[in-house]
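About this split. The held-out portion is used to measure sequence recovery: a designer receives only the structure tokens and must propose an amino acid at every position. Recovery is the fraction of positions where the proposal matches the reference. Here is one held-out target exactly as it appears in the evaluation file.
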């Protein structure tokens, strides 16, 4: 018998984010720790051309709009502050079984470079429940602490 333990990670999507459509910067951030898509980080010190260190978010405010048809939650940016949305396109080997290819298995490893989208007021992104501290509910306000959305 083989027992494969798969950790569950946040599933996210940049649903209606200006930077996803080329309207704003997309930064490459070198991550200090394992980081799920949908996490929020800030741009730190310059390392090399198109590469910055990770920094902690100092301000962000958002609002949970509704639950998506895929089971995640739509979050609208109210005040972006210095927050960047971590969203690297998941690259998962085709020959793995569907259980292993699930998006909830994907994360960005410490030391890797992640794509991070600049956020603007009115941007909307989707994030699974595991990406929140607290229980998400429609209409709730959110802030950011330790890369995660915190439900007020």
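Reference sequence for scoring:
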């Amino acid at each position: 018998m083989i027992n494969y333990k798969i950790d569950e990670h946040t599933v996210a999507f940049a649903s209606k984010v200006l930077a996803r459509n080329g309207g704003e910067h997309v930064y490459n951030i070198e991550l200090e720790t394992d980081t799920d898509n949908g996490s929020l980080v800030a741009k730190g010190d310059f390392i090399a051309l198109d590469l910055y260190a990770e920094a902690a978010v100092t301000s962000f405010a958002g609002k949970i709009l509704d639950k998506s048809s895929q089971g995640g939650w739509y979050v609208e940016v109210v005040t972006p502050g210095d927050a960047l949305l971590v969203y690297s396109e998941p690259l998962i080997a085709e020959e793995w079984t569907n259980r292993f290819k699930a998006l909830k298995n994907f994360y960005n490893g410490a030391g890797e470079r992640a794509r991070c989208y600049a956020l603007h007021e009115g941007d909307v992104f989707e994030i699974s429940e595991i990406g929140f501290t607290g229980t998400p509910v429609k209409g709730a306000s959110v802030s950011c602490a330790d890369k995660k959305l915190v439900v007020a």
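Annotator remark: DSSP finds one helix and twelve strands in the chain.
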